[in-house]
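Handout, page 2. Input:
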Amino acid sequence: MLYLFLNKKNIEVKAIAELLFTDVSNDPWEVKNLTEEKLDFSIESIAIIDVYLQRLKKSTYLEKNQIRLSSRIGAYLGEVIRRKLSTVYHWYDFNVIFDKIIDLDEFYDIVYQQETLYSRRKRDYILPMYEVFMFFQNKSRYKNMSAYVLKMLISRNEK
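Output:
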């Protein structure tokens, strides 16, 4: 258990999430909407992320930047989830907690390069970076990330 405590990555992943509003392109929509004021880690801010994802899916930029964008957007979504849950979840490298995940065969290899939200108390994990990657691949079970975040919050608060 001490090993998990020493390997928390909450600060690092929060910094990745903040890149959504600190490392913005010159695109007028991004300059106007991807700001610290609008991306305030609230449930309501996920609507901006949903629009951003749809814009990205229509762009050529996504093709070469899927992993980086999955990490940034997934980190943001995960931080929204983490801050709203009643149980404590922390960020870990997937490789630190993968032995606690039963169905590894259902995931693509990309999951090994990502951070994961994990609750020791509930022995539960959430993979927002992976879900964004699957969304980019058109393989997500969710129509948008608002639906994903709400599902994670409702299902985790019921457990």
